[in-house]
Design a protein that fits this description.
Layout: E1 5-14, E2 17-25, E3 29-34, E4 40-44, E5 48-56, E6 59-66, E7 71-77, H1 81-93, E8 97-100, E9 111-115, E10 118-123, E11 126-132, E12 136-142, E13 145-150, E14 162-166, H2 178-189, E15 201-210, E16 213-219, E17 223-227, E18 232-236, E19 240-247, E20 253-266, E21 269-279, E22 283-287, H3 292-299, E23 306-310, H4 311-323, E24 327-328, E25 342-346, E26 349-355, E27 359-363, E28 368-371, E29 375-382, E30 389-396, E31 401-408, H5 412-421, H6 447-466, H7 472-477, H8 485-502, H9 504-532, H10 552-567, H11 573-586, H12 589-615, H13 618-655, H14 665-674, H15 677-714
Parallel strand pairs: 5-8, 19-24
Antiparallel strand pairs: 1-2, 2-3, 3-4, 5-6, 6-7, 9-10, 10-11, 12-13, 13-14, 15-16, 15-21, 16-17, 17-18, 19-20, 20-21, 22-23, 25-26, 25-31, 26-27, 27-28, 29-30, 30-31
Helix pairs in contact: 8-9, 10-11, 10-12, 13-15
């Protein structure tokens, strides 16, 4: 057997919710680390004095007891794990792993036993359920009754609010009230916040960023009391996860961050972090409200009765001693400006991102703490608005994504070196130039790597700047970045005119291309008009013909509708159809055959009537009239086009100086392009005038021809 046993996906119950994590048994200790919060529970091997193997809701579980009275429960083991865990405990811990059965009878009367921090309800010496007294928020007594109220957990879908115990009166000792004795045992271990006695020390008017405002902080032995003008918060030290002391970028202020789980509540708002802001220049002389002997015995030299120094140092020192947790400070990271943080934006507000030795923390709105263990990958993305900044994206293993935007471009090298040194997975590493061969190598320097990225950003900026006055290839490459396509088209038209004055060949080619584009557009318009005509044929409907016959189901429904109404008084129309559908499906083949015969007879009668209707000309009369009217409308449209073409031809002959030969529009345009600039300008003006005249004449022709065609159709 090895020196350690490790198990994944082991669950620990925390105020009604199951948090998964990893459990490791070693010769020295038992260590459990939560995947959600990163909190570590360590039990020394010498402190273990009890181990039980139990069947629970998540398979099998282990209940461990220590000599100090603490109880730890871990669930999620398999049945096959019992033998190797039992042998490991005997060999290394000298503790026997005993099997303990749970009571599943469902009885609600039994014996209440207080064993350390647990209240166990036993039925016939078998435990029915256990209540961790640390989850109790309030204990109330009544006549022969004790009510326990519990702390609520936002992560659970269903929460246990309270439990009531009926305590029968004692018949042996009348001097002791069993209800009061029960309540005293609960309150001795419960997490009930009672502001009894004097505070150890008080800090006046401290600036708090979350929750926002100025609060008086009163330090009690077991909890922290924030007293403000409108709200009060009581924070037990057991809910404090981590402490952070972070210098501001201006080097004149300090952040003191307290991470909380579960968070403090104000209505529907949850505050997972308590952030205090201090000035480095502010000093304080602090005197603890305890005797020197009590201070020495309680804090073991961590604090003294009289202390003086900076305000942020005193607050952090007192909190560290009371909470008994380390204070996390920034590591060796230094940004471009020499600060230990990076200015960036998260969501809608600007703040500071601190790269720590084991994670990232962002302050202050909203505060975010990401441990390296829960990070899946990071991504360096180009800024959406300008190339002077970039975005830093972090994806977690749970699928959440955090984007810190508007980071200065100068910070890229330092941040990339930090991420690479911490061996975090970089998502877009393969897309960068010069980085494909260095995916798994972290020992080499990264100067060439981040220089390639900066050069790429600069090159893209130059391309966008040259896109306004560059050739066609640059214009095409910049289409994705410049959505204003109309401005680019106008610039190209002016450039083509300028090139035509310099070199006639280039001008001819560009104008020929523009002429072809105009012709193509005209052809498209004609095609669209032709495609719209068939839509009118869908509106034809013959209303004079015979009606279609009903199906077998409809014939049966018409005959059975009154019967369904009588059998189900007050039934609605929709319910009748549903009921009829069910009845029709339940009918046999013989019953349905009767109605199918009737439906077939109705179908034959319909076919006969339809045939007679068509022979009499009823079905084709309307269609023939519509088709004849369409033919006449087509003829009139052809006449209009021939008239317009002849009129245009006569005008072209007149322009040609009396020459009888016909000149096409292409010939006229090419002759105009081969002429000088001055002639071309005058001819373009005459063109626009002739076009307007032609348009007016065509409108007059339409006004004259329209009533005539309508009269012909009516005749």
């Amino acid at each position: 057997m090895g020196d350690t046993l490790e198990f994944n996906e082991i669950y620990q119950e925390v105020k009604g919710s199951w948090n998964d994590g990893r459990l490791r048994f070693s010769k020295q200790n038992v260590v459990y680390k939560s995947s959600k919060t990163g909190k570590v529970d360590s039990i020394s091997a010498g402190d273990l004095n009890m181990a039980q193997w139990r069947r629970v809701c998540l398979g099998h579980g282990i209940k461990l007891g220590t000599s100090t009275g603490n109880i730890y429960k871990y669930d999620g083991f398999r049945d096959t794990d019992f033998e190797k865990i039992s042998e490991f405990f005997k060999a290394n811990y000298k503790v026997e792993l005993t099997e303990k059965d749970m009571c599943v009878k469902g009885w609600n009367w039994g014996t209440a036993k207080f064993s350390g921090p647990l209240l166990s309800f036993d039925v016939n010496d078998n435990t029915a359920f256990e209540v961790p007294l640390s989850n109790v928020s309030q204990c109330a007594t009544g006549k022969n009754e004790v009510t326990l109220e519990f702390h609520q957990n936002d992560d659970t879908e269903v929460s246990l609010m309270e439990v009531r115990f009926y305590v029968p009166p004692s018949q042996t000792d009348e001097r002791v009230d069993p209800v009061e004795a029960f309540a005293e045992n609960v309150l001795s271990k419960a997490d009930v916040i009672q502001a009894t006695g004097d505070a150890v020390c008080i800090f006046k008017e401290l600036q708090c960023l979350t929750p926002r405002g100025r609060y008086d902080i009163r330090i009690y032995p077991t909890f922290l009391h924030l007293h403000g003008k409108t709200f009060d918060y009581k924070i037990p030290y057991t809910t404090v996860l981590r402490l952070f002391l972070l210098p501001h970028k201006d080097q004149r202020q300090m952040f003191f961050v307290i991470s909380l789980d579960p968070p403090i509540k104000q209505g529907q708002t949850r505050y997972h972090f308590l952030i205090l802001l201090f000035s480095k220049e502010e000093d304080i002389n602090l005197t603890l409200n305890m005797s020197e002997e009590d201070v020495e015995r309680r804090f073991e030299g961590k604090l003294s009765k009289n202390m003086s120094g900076s305000l942020y140092e005193m607050v952090s020192r007192v909190m560290k001693a009371l909470v008994n947790r380390k204070i996390t400070v920034p590591g060796n990271f230094q940004g471009h400006s020499g600060a230990q943080c990076i200015t960036c934006s998260y969501k809608a507000s600007s703040g500071l991102l601190y790269p720590l030795e084991r994670g990232f923390i962002y302050v202050h709105k909203p505060p975010v703490h990401l441990r390296f263990e829960e990070i899946s990958c990071v991504n360096f993305a180009r800024g959406t608005t300008t190339t002077r900044s970039f975005d830093f994206e972090i994806e977690t293993k749970q699928g959440n994504q955090y984007t810190f935007s508007s980071i200065e471009r100068e910070e890229y090298g330092k941040l990339f070196d930090f991420v690479n040194a911490k061996k975090l997975n970089i998502k877009n590493r393969g897309f960068k130039e010069g980085m494909k061969g260095k995916t798994d190598e972290y020992s080499d320097s990264d100067e060439d790597q981040h220089d390639a990225y900066l050069e790429r950003m600069k090159a893209e900026g130059k391309i966008r700047e040259e896109g306004n006055d560059s050739d066609e290839s640059d214009g095409e490459s910049d289409e994705s970045f410049n959505p204003g396509e109309e401005d680019d088209d106008i610039a190209e038209e002016y450039d083509s005119k300028a090139s035509a004055s310099d070199s006639s060949e280039e001008g001819d080619e560009s104008e020929d291309e523009s002429a072809k584009k105009k012709k193509a557009k005209k052809v498209k318009v004609v095609k669209e008009k032709k495609e719209r005509k068939p839509r009118k044929e869908k509106k034809q409907k013959d209303t004079g013909g015979p009606k279609r016959p009903m199906s077998a189901y409809m014939l049966w429904l018409n005959s059975s509708r009154e019967r369904i109404k009588s059998e189900n008084p007050g039934i609605s129309i929709t319910e009748i159809s549903k009921k009829a559908g069910e009845m029709w499906r339940q009918l046999g083949k013989e019953d349905k055959e009767e109605w199918e015969i009737k439906a077939g007879e109705a179908k034959r009668q319909y076919d006969k009537a339809k045939k007679e209707y068509k022979e009499s000309g009823g079905g084709g009369g309307g269609g023939g009239s519509t088709s004849s009217s369409k033919k006449e409308s087509k003829k009139s449209a052809v006449k209009k086009e021939t008239k317009r073409k002849s009129a245009g031809g006569d005008k072209d002959r007149e322009r040609g100086g009396g020459n009888d030969s016909f000149k096409s529009r292409e010939f006229i345009e090419t002759s105009e392009e081969s002429s000088s600039d001055s002639d071309r300008k005058s001819k373009t003006k005459s063109k626009t005038k002739n076009k307007s005249k032609r348009k007016r004449e065509s409108e007059e022709e339409e006004a004259v021809s329209t009533p005539a065609s309508s009269e012909e159709e009516s005749d």
